[in-house]
Amino acid sequence: xxxxxxxxxxxxxxxxxxxxxxxxxxxxxxxxxxxxxxxxxxxxxxxxxxxxxxxxxxxxxxxxxxxxxxxxxxxxxxxxxxxxxxxxxxxxxxxxxxxxxxxxxxxxxxxxxxxxxxxxx
Length: 121
Hints:
By secondary structure, the protein is mostly helical.
């Protein structure tokens, strides 16, 4: 095997480097996909109560709802480039508590899930 690799290095260096690069990129994205799948399929990470460190994207992933539902529930205007904001900061900007935000999210999630069930029937 090492003789074959040495032969490839001597005669097809560019192709060998390209192959190694593609394998590394595929490995990176494969690992990232597998780790995300494992994380979000763990019941401890589904429908989590809101915490100040969470971002709207995390809330959407945890409740498995589309981003527009999260933006609507958290009363976020999506008129510019996306910004990474925590729920604590968002609650301070809106003058509400995390408990009020939790109530909004739960209501929006329930409405969306009910609408999805009606559409499936």
